[in-house]
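Shipment paperwork, digital attachment
Item: protein structure file
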Amino acid sequence: MRVVVLGLGYVGTTLMVGVEKIKRGELDYCGIPLGNNLKYKVEDIEFVSAYDVDLRKVGKSVYEVSLMYHNSVPDSLKEIVVHEGVHLNSLKGLPLRVRGLDYRMSLRECVERLIEEWSENSPEVFINLCTTEKAEPFNNIEKLREAIDNDEKERVTATQLYAYAAIEYAKYNNPVVFINGIPTPIANDLAFVKLGKEVGVTFFGDDGATGATPLITDLLEHLVERRREVLSIAQFNIGGNMDFLSLTLKERNKAKERTKSKVVKDVLGYNAPHFIKPTGYLEPLGDKKFVAMHIMYKSFNNAIDEVIINMRVNDSPAFAGLLVDLIRLGRIALDRRYFGTIYEVNAFYMKSPGPPGSKVISKVLAFYLLLNWLGDSLHVSESISPAFSNLTLISNIYDSRRESL
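Attachment content:
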C-alpha cells in the first residue's frame, strides 16, 4: 500500500514515525483499533511522498521534518521528500511563511503537476491532513469542474483540489483511496462521491473522530438506551498545536463545530441544548489537549443527574492510530471495487460520516457495523476486544438493528 501524506504536521509525522517503528519491532499495535487482525499488516504500508506549504518543510526529508515534533525518528524516513503542495489560503492568518504551487500556477495546472508527480511513484492511498479550512461543498460535478477550470482560488480549498487531483489521477492510473481527516466536506459532497464511483476513488471522511467525540457519542447512546432525557451538554477543547491555533479564526472554528455538534441530534433523536466546539489555544499544552465535558440529564422520578469529565488526550497519536486502520481498510475497499464512499467505515472513524445525509451513531454500534462489513477480511490473530470472539452474535445483532440504523 503506497501512501502519500498531504500536510505534514503532528499527525502526519506521528503516523509515519509510528508505522516505521512498528516495522522495526520498536512498537506494538496499541492504539490501532483493528490491531493485527486484518489481511493487510502494518508492514505492508509504504510511504512514498509527502506534501506541505510551510517553507520550513518544503524540500526537506520527512526525517528532518519529523525531528521538529519527535525525539526519535527512524532513518528510513530520510529517503522521503516533502514536496511543495497547494496552499489556497489553508494557512491564511497563521504566523507561518508559506509557498504553494497555486502561487504561480492555475488550479488546472496544479492538478496536472500533482498527477505528474504522483505518476512517478504510483500511490494507492492519499491521506489529507491539511489544517482545518473554511469550506463549502459543491454537490454538483459541473460546478466543481467549472470552479477549477475558471481558476476560482477563493472558492476551492486545498483539500478539495487534492481530492479532485486524486480523481483525475485515478482516471489514467490505478484506483485510489482518499482519506479526509479534516472537516472539509469530501465524503459528504455529492460531487466527489459521484465522481469517485465513476472513475475508481474511495473516499473516507469526514474529520477523524478522536478524543472527546467517540466518548460523547457512546455516553449519549448509554443514556438513550436507559431512556434518560438529556437536558444540556457542554464540551470544551483547548490545545496548543497548529490546528488549535487555526481554530481561533472564527470561520475555521465553525467548520469544526459543525462536525462535532452533529452527534447530538443524530444519537439522541432530538436536539438537546448544547455547546460543543474547540474553545481555545494555549501553546504550553502542545499536542496534549484538555477536554472538559458536562452532561445533565433527567432520570426516573424526575431525578436530575450529571456526568462531569476532565481528560487530557495526545491529539495526534489518537488519530494516527486510526489512520493505520484506514490505510488498510482502503486497500480492502479497492480489492472489492467499492468506490464512492463507505458508511460502515466512516461511521466508526469519522465525526461526520459520509455519504451525505448519513447519521452519526455511537462508536460501539459503529464498531460492530465495521466488523460486519469486514467479513472474511478480518483475520483474527489476537483478541483486543470481546467482540472478536463472538462475531456471529455481533452479526445477528447488527442484522436485527439494520432498519433502525
